[in-house]
Predict the 3D structure of the following.
Amino acid sequence: MNDLTKYFLLGAVVLILSACDSFLDESPKYNLTKEHAVTDYTSAQNIVNGIYSKFTGKYIGGEIMGRLSSQAGIWAYDQLEAYYAMAYRQGSNDGTDIWLQLYTIVNAANAAIEGISGVENSKFPTVEDKNRLVAEARCVRAFAYTQIFWLWSHWWEKADSPYGLVYRSEVSDLSNLIKTRLSVGDSYARIIEDLKYAETHLNDFKSSRYASRQLAQVTHAKLLLYRGWEGDYAEALALVQNVKTHAPASFALETDLAKMYQDSWDSKEVLFARYLGDLSNITQNEFYYSYGLYYQTELYPDPQSWVKNDPRYPIITAGTVRTPEAWDASFKTGVYTKLYRSGRYAGPNDKYATYYFRYPELYLLESELKFRLNPSDIAAALAPINEMRSKYTNPALPPLTASNQTELSDLIFKEIVVTLFLENGSEWFASLRFLKDGKPWLHTLKPDVSISSDKYCWPIPDAEIINQEHNVIQNPSLE
């Protein structure tokens, strides 16, 4: 039995369930076998809360976002040259540890869905309470599968492409571990089915610690935007505008950007942040944020000029910070403290957060979707971005203007980069959607790299291919 099989079976045989009361106070309170994990409303709540403990670990925060930012030609970190060059291959830079952690989340969500669904309705205060817990687990499963889909599948291709998800909807054991890949169309359908269920049954946003109806809606909207099939843009715009109109007041833009980054996952504009759990040294789980950003403060030339010339630059690089090394007590400025904070030596338990979604992205999504639906209406597409910019008080941001569709396209792309770079991977996907001189911006950002669409995703990890006895087909050109 190889390591990957053991990994999944461990999740199937023993479920480490925990009530996650705060980001820094997470300890296992339940150690139950699958068969006895869910018997009533309380244990159903516990198994859903336990899913979030699977977000601990070092691989699905800055580890993903640093790689994607370098892949996009944004962050010039030399340790990620293979991602800049898109030189990943099966068995080399194939993201095995990220894959394993995301599937651990999927496995925990599957256990919750199976366990809760098998309990009779009379054990819950109402049937809707039961549905809400199932919806929360399905939302987290959809979120994890969205990450897997975007990282390892041909999400940009037509429905009949065979390079979709390796999809598991049951708790993994020896009888069901081996799977074939879904088509791209079926992959979208499975994820969106979960999201729609969550949009119907899940509660509104209360805390960035937990999934919410709004998380389901924005994940759904981004899937549709990235896919771009007929009708997708209009549906995505309706989802985004629904969130802006109906989200509770507890989820809102923070007008003081410095305060937002200071509050980190506790900011009211953070819809969902990576759960860190009860760790003795949080920075060990955010290497690129707590270490790499100190030594690589430069971006590649174009994004470097966009970011440095933006009024937000002094905020996101505020302060003088110490090196992350114990043996080196030097200090410097210009570090992206919006993510680096005070570094792994000076601040090992600072609020190092991966912002999976912040409120400003709603405005960016709305502007882009309006542009794609009606590119000639420049004023309509500019309005959401300028609405966002008008709300900031620290720093104040002037309105943006564009005189033609090309300028508008470049403006929206640059605003996505400046607002979100290194936070949630949005700059990578935007570099593929937006065109410069008739080609994706990625070609302009990386003129020295030979770019093939086959390399828009990573290779299925070598361990998975071996475990599946080569039942899973590898992404083309990445063998």
Summary: The CA atoms of residues 146 and 253 lie 25 Å apart. DSSP finds 21 helices and eight strands in the chain. The radius of gyration is 22 Å. Residues 127-152 form the longest helix (26 residues).
